[in-house]
């Protein structure tokens, strides 16, 4: 058939389907007899609501500033602390959100950090000079200051430390222009910090005495020859600290997020009212780093913002549990509420920033796998697999349940659990419908719980493990996950399976009714489209192989899912896009997107940092000989609890830097032990609630599409006991690392 004829035929089909939909909607929803005036008055609240939102936007327009590229990116090097004038207004609650670029170290540092490829926007900006310093340099360039003698003479006559700062940086810039790819600092000067000192970025509030500034700065200034190797404290520029210092440990090849709050109680006795305040950033070791700096004076709201964020989160959970509103809309309302709180705190993110909050890996993986599974479903493969499983059960429901649970757990150990449930969900639903029309919810619930447990055994089995393994790849390898986590997973899976069977004893135990009739029915199942089966099978095999080879290529699994789905659609459905999109669960993807935005906004506000700070404080307070035991207990149980109410993906992203910091703080804690405790807690804890893990949402959405909605409270009735049992087993297993 010619191409235009195919399009014309397809258009006629779409028009006919649309007319049928209109007729159906007219019959299903007949017109309600209500006067226009009454309808307008009754729904006036909608106009008031929208008008209120518009009013809030207009009143907050001064806060809805969209930053220009690199507007908030500044350079800090060891010879030039970066300072921001804050004015003389009293400090009540100054909230600082700071992202430091990967540390490159000094040029002579044997660690090789300077040879690492610079990643992302911040790494590219590491050699940039802030607008503030460039403005200070302009008059010096115009005056033609240069050379050691001229610089010394200029330094003696400078009255303002900022001008001296500009003179120093002018010399650094001259060297940087002649060696643009060299890191400024080469080695620590005599008497300065050792090259092996851990690099730290310090943030604090400072003031300066203008009458003493020039003398202090001139006395502290090194020679021009030593300037590139110098570590100059803010005191060299006439500043003195008036608040507690906040330090951030910088990492090689990894950006570091460091939030801090400086309150009235943080100010020291040296603070003088009416003096100009400065936010000063400095380094303790030779080198340089780029920072993306945001700060805002929040006032009294700062003391309540974390609790307000927690209230929004709990409100969303309650709304989902009531099932009066679809969970997608609950997540959207919570996300907008979190962004409104950011607006109130003068921390409004741009639209580009909000899109960065999305976990494109999870969303892309789900999108691609939904299309691939939808194509496989059209071949009749799932019905054939269903028949094989029913025959293997020999008519015993408990054996069928155990087979499905452990097959799912084993598959999840090598595929991520989201992919596993997308593959296993249709098989289970088809199988349970065949088995005398049984409710598929208990079986799928058992499978997803075992999927989250089995996925903990390897680095690629569960998203939290992927996050931990990628972020801590200097300490952990693929084999390490199997050696240290798999024994605990095997130990936890046995009581978990027994507990699930007992909780669902009415549905998952006993004989399969009319087993002979069921066998005769499934004996007729065949693959209905071998051509599509071959194409889909080849693509799926390559995609799954790409997943399994993750330890070799370290590429995001979403790439393989999306590329595979695109190839399969092009070779099988070049013109039929609408039918393919029907296999995508858009409400699930939008729920995930809204949840990611909500949790990341909570992180920007500082709620998750507050929780991490609590955990850190408890661990630090423990006696040295019991610190490992306390750290394991806290990380394991707290992670399980928090992962039950938050999605475990953003929680794990937040906690990985915390355990890295604890392990490097001289507390005698082993980074591997902390990583295993976090993995067990985050993965097992995700079983507790419907929103605890991504695989849970996938399973609930599959069931809902088939007419079997899964309630939030119904999930908790089984999920919480299984979570407690498995975490308790993991706790006993982790004792091997504590003594």
From TrEMBL:
Short name of any one Pfam family annotated for the protein: CitMHS
Keywords: Cell membrane, Membrane, Transmembrane, Transmembrane helix, Transport
Entry-linked InterPro entries: Arsenical_pump_ArsB, Cit_transptr-like_dom, Diverse_Ion_Transporter
Principal location listed in the UniProt entry: membrane
Membrane topology: Multi-pass membrane protein
Residue ranges constituting the Citrate transporter-like domain according to the UniProt record: 317-681
Subcellular location: Cell membrane
Residue intervals passing through the bilayer: 303-320, 326-345, 357-377, 397-423, 481-504, 532-552, 558-577, 589-608, 658-678, 684-703, 715-735
Top-level division of the source organism's lineage: Eukaryota
The family this protein is said to belong to: Belongs to the CitM (TC 2.A.11) transporter family.
Protein name: Citrate transporter-like domain-containing protein
Organism lineage: Eukaryota, Viridiplantae, Chlorophyta, core chlorophytes, Chlorophyceae
């Amino acid at each position: 058939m010619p191409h235009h004829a195919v399009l014309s035929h397809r258009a006629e089909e779409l028009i006919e389907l649309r007319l049928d939909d209109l007729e159906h909607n007219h019959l299903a929803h007949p017109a309600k007899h209500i006067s226009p005036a009454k309808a307008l008055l009754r729904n006036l609240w909608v106009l008031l609501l929208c008008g209120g939102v518009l009013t809030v936007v207009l009143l907050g327009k001064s806060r809805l500033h969209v930053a220009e590229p690199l507007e908030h990116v500044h350079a800090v090097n060891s010879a030039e602390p970066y300072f921001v004038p804050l004015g003389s207004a009293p400090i009540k609650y100054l909230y600082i959100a700071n992202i430091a670029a990967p540390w490159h170290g000094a040029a002579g540092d044997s660690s090789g950090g300077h040879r690492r490829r610079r990643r992302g926007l911040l790494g590219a900006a590491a050699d940039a000079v802030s607008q503030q310093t460039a403005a200070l340099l302009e008059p010096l360039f115009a005056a033609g200051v240069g050379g050691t003698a001229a610089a010394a003479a200029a330094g003696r006559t400078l009255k303002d430390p900022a001008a001296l700062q500009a003179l120093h940086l002018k010399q650094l810039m001259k060297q940087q222009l002649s060696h643009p790819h060299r890191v400024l600092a080469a080695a620590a000067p005599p008497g300065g910090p050792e090259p092996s000192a851990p690099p730290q970025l310090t943030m604090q509030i400072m003031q300066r005495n203008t009458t003493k500034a020039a003398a202090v700065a001139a006395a502290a200034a090194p020679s021009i020859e030593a300037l590139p190797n110098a570590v100059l404290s803010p005191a060299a520029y006439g500043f003195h600290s008036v608040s507690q210092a906040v330090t951030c440990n910088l990492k090689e090849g990894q950006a570091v997020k460091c939030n801090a709050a400086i309150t009235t109680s943080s100010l020291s006795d040296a603070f003088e009212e009416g003096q100009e305040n400065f936010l000063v950033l400095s380094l303790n070791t030779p080198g340089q780093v780029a920072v993306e700096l945001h700060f805002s004076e929040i006032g009294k709201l700062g003391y309540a913002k974390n609790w307000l964020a927690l209230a929004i989160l709990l409100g969303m959970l309650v709304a989902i549990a009531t099932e009066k509103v679809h969970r997608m809309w609950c997540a959207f309302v919570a996300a907008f509420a979190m962004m409104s709180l950011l607006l109130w705190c003068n921390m409004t993110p741009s639209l580009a920033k909000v899109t960065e909050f999305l976990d494109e890996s999870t969303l892309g993986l789900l999108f691609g796998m939904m299309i691939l599974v939808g194509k496989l479903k059209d071949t009749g493969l799932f019905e054939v697999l269903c028949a094989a499983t029913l025959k293997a059960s020999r008519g015993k429901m408990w054996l069928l349940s155990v087979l499905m649970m452990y097959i799912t757990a084993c598959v999840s150990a090598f595929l991520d659990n989201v992919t596993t449930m997308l593959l296993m969900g249709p098989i289970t639903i088809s199988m349970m419908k065949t088995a005398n029309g049984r409710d598929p919810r208990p079986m799928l619930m058992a499978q997803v719980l075992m999927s989250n447990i089995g996925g903990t055994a390897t680095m690629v089995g569960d998203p939290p493990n992927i996050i931990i393994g990628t972020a801590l790849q200097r300490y952990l390898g693929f084999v390490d996950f199997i050696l240290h986590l798999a024994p605990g997973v095997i130990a936890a899976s046995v009581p978990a399976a027994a507990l699930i069977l007992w909780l669902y004893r009415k549905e998952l135990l006993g004989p399969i009714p009319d087993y002979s009739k069921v066998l005769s029915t499934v004996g007729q199942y065949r693959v209905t489209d071998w051509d599509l089966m071959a194409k889909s099978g080849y693509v799926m095999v390559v995609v799954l192989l790409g997943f399994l080879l993750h330890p070799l290529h370290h590429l995001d699994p979403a790439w393989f899912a999306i590329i595979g789905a695109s190839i399969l659609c092009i070779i099988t459905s070049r013109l039929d896009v609408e039918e393919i999109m029907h296999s995508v669960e858009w409400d699930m993807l939008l729920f995930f997107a809204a949840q990611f935005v909500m949790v990341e906004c909570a992180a920007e506000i500082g709620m998750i940092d507050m929780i991490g700070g609590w955990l850190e404080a408890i661990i630090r307070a423990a006696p040295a000989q019991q610190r490992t035991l306390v750290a394991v207990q806290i990380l394991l149980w707290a992670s399980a609890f928090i992962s039950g109410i938050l999605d475990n993906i953003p929680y794990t992203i937040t906690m990985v830097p915390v355990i890295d910091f604890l392990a490097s703080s001289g507390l005698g804690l082993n980074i591997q032990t902390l990583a295993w405790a976090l993995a067990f807690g985050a993965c097992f804890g995700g079983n507790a609630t419907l929103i605890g893990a991504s695989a849970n949402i996938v399973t609930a959405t599959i069931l809902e599409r088939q007419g079997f909605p899964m309630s939030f409270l119904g999930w908790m009735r089984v999920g919480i006991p299984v979570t407690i049992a498995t975490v308790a087993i993991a706790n006993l297993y982790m004792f091997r690392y504590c003594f």
